């Protein structure tokens, strides 16, 4: 999985207060318009590549004989790579340039693709996932910032709505597209553990060329400031609201972790649906639902977004568990889609609240904290499920997972209600 699903509102992009457009927006140049779509393509390809292994995990398990827990470890090391890169390099494009960071990130994804092509053994799978995570951590915030700046330069008077829709589609839509393409290729072409990576290696090369042809949008300031890792803080004026947003991030990312790690193996095992294409389609449907929900709820009242996300995610988890216990593929799919919608809305609201509460010069710090908590939500529950599945049936483990997440959602709702009561008194 990738950088996490989110709304990318205009103020949320990481930009140093001294960064300025390298090419002023006075002309609305066509180069910036073309560059916008080039970066969107690169963003989409990189995020799609990050989920290519998802529908292939059952094949890796058959080939090397490792367990579901090993799959969760492989998934977790990817998330660790993303977190490490977010903290160490997610912000450096503010002064070294967007293009340099994007090309470096895409090159790391290409290296990961080569690793996957050279070997399907477990050590190679782990190394490839770590490298892929490092690339995604560098790319997500940088690509979002670059898209915003290219859009502003090309259409200086336009609403940011196009930027928000395209960046969301590239980010979350890419996560779903990777599983869909990889699952279909693995189902119907030779070399299921090689061909998907070969296809994406070619697309990554095209993405690098596309970014190289794109205008730079920040002034390069090599050596203008000492390097330091991205600071992370929860102290942004409204600590309870920040805690609630972090909890929402944990809940949303936990669900995405479920579908991009153990769900394909569950489909092949307990539901007796070993089709790689089907696994890809189901994970794609979850992410597509999240992306569509984030896009379509742009005009929803702020105080309505969090309750809607909480209710839909809880409802989706209940339906998901019913589908698992009744071995109903239809209920499992419906539960996944509803859960995806709820998670997308919930995380969009969390990003919006953090952006609104943080001071402009600490916005990157505030978002870094949100993403850090969210990715911990991606790692810890998935590893916990993997460990539990060594002793318990998958259905039992995922039922307990759903129950824990629903309790977390209830706590977030209670915290929100308490804050609202305090504000009115």
UniProtKB/TrEMBL annotation:
Q: Where is this region: Disordered?
A: 1-24
Principal localization reads membrane
UniProt-listed Pfam families: MFS_1
| InterPro entries named among the record's database cross-references | MFS, MFS_dom, MFS_trans_sf, MFS_Transporters
Q: Where does this protein have compositionally biased stretches of type Pro residues?
A: 1-12
User: Could you tell me which Gene3D superfamilies the record lists for this protein?
Assistant: MFS general substrate transporter like domains
Localization, per the record, is: Cell membrane
Which GO cellular component terms, listed alphabetically, does the Swiss-Prot or TrEMBL entry include? plasma membrane
Identify this protein by name.
Putative MFS family arabinose efflux permease
Q: Which GO terms describe its molecular function?
A: transmembrane transporter activity
**Which membrane topology term applies here?**
Multi-pass membrane protein
Name all Major facilitator superfamily (MFS) profile domain ranges.
34-425
Q: Where are the transmembrane segments?
A: 34-54, 66-89, 101-120, 195-220, 241-265, 277-296, 308-324, 330-347, 367-391, 397-417
Keyword Transmembrane helix applies: yes
Q: Print the keywords alphabetically.
A: Cell membrane, Membrane, Transmembrane, Transmembrane helix, Transport
Q: What is the superkingdom listed in this entry's lineage?
A: Bacteria
């Amino acid at each position: 999985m990738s950088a996490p699903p989110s709304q990318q509102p205009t103020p949320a992009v990481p930009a140093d207060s001294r960064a300025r457009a390298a090419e002023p927006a006075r002309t609305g140049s066509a180069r910036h318009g073309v560059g916008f779509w080039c970066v969107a393509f690169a963003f989409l390809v990189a995020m799609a590549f990050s989920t290519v292994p998802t529908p292939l995990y059952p094949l890796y398990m058959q080939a090397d004989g490792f367990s579901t827990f090993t799959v969760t470890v492989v998934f977790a090391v990817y998330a660790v790579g993303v977190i490490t890169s977010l903290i160490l390099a997610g912000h450096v494009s503010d002064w070294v340039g967007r293009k340099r960071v994007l090309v470096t990130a895409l090159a790391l994804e290409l290296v990961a693709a080569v690793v996957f092509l050279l070997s399907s053994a477990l050590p190679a799978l782990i190394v490839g996932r770590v490298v892929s995570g490092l690339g995604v951590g560098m790319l997500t915030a940088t690509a979002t910032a670059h898209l915003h700046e290219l859009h502003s330069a090309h259409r200086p008077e336009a609403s940011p709505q196009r930027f928000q829709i395209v960046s969301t589609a590239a980010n979350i839509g890419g996560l779903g597209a990777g599983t869909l393409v990889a699952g279909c290729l693995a189902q119907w072409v030779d070399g299921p553990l090689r061909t998907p990576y070969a296809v994406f290696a070619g697309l990554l090369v095209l993405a690098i060329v596309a970014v190289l042809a794109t205008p730079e949008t920040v002034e390069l300031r090599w050596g203008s400031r000492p390097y330091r890792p991205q600071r992370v803080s929860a102290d942004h004026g409204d600590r309870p609201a920040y805690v609630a947003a972090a909890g929402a991030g944990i809940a949303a990312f936990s669900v995405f972790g479920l579908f991009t790690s153990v769900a394909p193996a569950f489909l092949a095992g307990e539901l007796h649906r070993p089709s790689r294409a089907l696994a890809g389609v189901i994970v794609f449907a979850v992410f597509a639902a999240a992306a569509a929900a984030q896009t379509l709820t742009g005009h929803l009242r702020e105080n309505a977004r969090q309750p809607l996300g909480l209710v839909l995610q809880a409802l989706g988890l209940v339906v998901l568990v019913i589908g698992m216990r009744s071995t109903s593929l239809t209920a499992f799919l419906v539960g996944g889609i509803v859960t995806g919608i709820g998670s997308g809305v919930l995380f969009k609201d969390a990003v919006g609240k953090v952006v609104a509460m943080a001071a402009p010069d600490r916005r990157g710090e505030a978002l870094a904290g949100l993403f850090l908590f969210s990715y911990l939500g991606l790692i810890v529950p998935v590893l916990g499920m993997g460990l539990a599945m060594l002793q318990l049936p998958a259905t039992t483990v995922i039922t307990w997972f759903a129950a824990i997440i629903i309790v977390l959602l209830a706590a977030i709702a209670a915290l929100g209600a308490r804050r609202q009561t305090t504000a009115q008194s």
